[in-house]
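This section describes the prediction task in plain terms. A model, or a person checking by hand, is given the sequence of a single protein chain and must write out its three-dimensional structure as a string of tokens. No templates, partner chains or ligands are provided. The sample shown here is typical of the held-out split.
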Amino acid sequence: MSKKAGIGDTISFKKKDHTTIGVVYLTRDNSVLVEISQEDTAILNLENNKTVVAHKNYTLLTKKNKKIV
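The expected answer:
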């Protein structure tokens, strides 16, 4: 099983000392683009609910609706 997240996978990551959960909507060679909740968007003081996370900076929680842990 790949350790890299794919489209539709759920990941957990830390940004600005806040642990956040999001859903991957686009993958790149070195990172993924993730959609997060509006609540987390407000906590992190972001302009929108999308952010970039490097592959090395997240934990894969579910793989296209299949629990990993």
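For orientation: The CA atoms of residues 40 and 46 lie 9 Å apart.
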